[in-house]
Inverse folding.
């Protein structure tokens, strides 16, 4: 739950998941499947995933561990051969022309060293541009622009292993863009970064989409990053898409009625137990001469009921604030329902 939402500023209205007539689909995935093994021992990691992503759109891919996120992304990239289904990137069929697809995509995968640490920053950009078939000299102006955009110009001739963790992440992203890609796949791009470096990278991702019209497919366990950066969220569970909509629409559908309550005095254990038993109360915190807690109301609950319990026990109400649902609440709700639970 969050009381305020501070998202990076967008230069246009991309909050709606409904494509406008001017949108161009640059990634089309249809009924993608990946099964390991045969017969009774077969394990399906990706089970009929279909999605479309437009140019300049930032899409987050979420799911619990084992949901198929990594296998889906690697299947789209051709790093894992899918069992069936189709992938088109920038109008190029990945099965018919994998080299043609490669010219349009870049990837920064978590757990992989995405650049060469003994090379300088500029040498890395030149190397990865050359891998994409670019003439390094012809790409120099693009590289100069990337160095400026990522505040790496002064580090251009430094070896990557001399840089901070945040700067190394920037070099990895710049190298991914060095050959002029249309679609960028990022797996846990802010992992291990401090708050300042993480916020800076989030702003840069929004700028890539808003100003450079680059499409970003982002996988992360950090809900704040996804909520700050993404226009749309795709949630996977057991290899299937169980939700696909804008962040705003997903949060709006949840319609949680949640409040943060501050009551006078320290609530005794028996009273706390009653509140937890009869209402969805959590996060008790004692603050000197007062107690703060959060309550989420069910269909048959009312805030007056909670406040009445406090009043009857002799604890005055000091403050009540409404809490807005956030993307983490949505994620827990839809994945809980998909796995057979009651969601929230």
């Amino acid at each position: 739950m969050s009381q305020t939402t501070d998202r990076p500023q967008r230069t246009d209205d991309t909050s709606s998941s409904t494509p406008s007539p001017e949108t161009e689909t640059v990634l089309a995935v249809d009924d993608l499947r990946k099964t390991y093994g045969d017969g009774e021992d077969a394990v399906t990691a990706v089970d009929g995933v279909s999605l479309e992503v437009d140019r300049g759109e930032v899409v987050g891919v979420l799911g619990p561990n084992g949901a198929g996120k990594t296998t889906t992304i690697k299947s789209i990239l051709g790093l894992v051969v899918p069992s069936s289904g189709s992938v088109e990137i920038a109008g190029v069929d990945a099965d018919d022309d994998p080299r043609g697809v490669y010219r349009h995509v870049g990837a920064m995968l978590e757990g992989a060293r995405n650049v060469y640490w003994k090379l300088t920053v500029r040498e890395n950009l030149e190397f990865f541009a050359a891998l994409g078939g670019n003439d390094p000299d012809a790409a120099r102006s693009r590289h100069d622009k990337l160095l400026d955009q990522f505040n790496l110009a002064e580090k251009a001739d430094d070896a990557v292993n001399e840089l901070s963790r945040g700067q190394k992440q920037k070099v990895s992203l710049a190298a991914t863009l060095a050959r002029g890609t249309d679609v960028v796949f990022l797996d846990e791009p802010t992992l291990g970064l401090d708050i300042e470096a993480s916020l800076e990278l989030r702003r840069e991702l929004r700028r890539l989409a808003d100003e450079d019209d680059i499409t970003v497919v982002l996988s992360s366990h950090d809900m704040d990053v996804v909520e700050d950066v993404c226009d749309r969220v795709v949630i996977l569970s057991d290899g299937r898409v169980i939700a696909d909509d804008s962040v705003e629409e997903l949060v709006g559908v949840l319609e949680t009625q949640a409040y943060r309550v501050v009551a006078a005095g320290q609530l005794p254990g028996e009273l706390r137990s009653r509140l937890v038993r009869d209402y969805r109360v959590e996060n008790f915190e004692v603050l000197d001469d007062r107690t703060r807690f959060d309550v989420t109301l069910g269909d048959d609950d009312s805030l007056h009921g909670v406040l009445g319990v406090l009043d009857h026990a002799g604890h005055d109400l000091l403050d009540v604030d409404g809490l807005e649902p956030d993307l983490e609440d949505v994620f827990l709700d839809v994945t809980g329902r998909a796995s057979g639970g009651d969601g929230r």
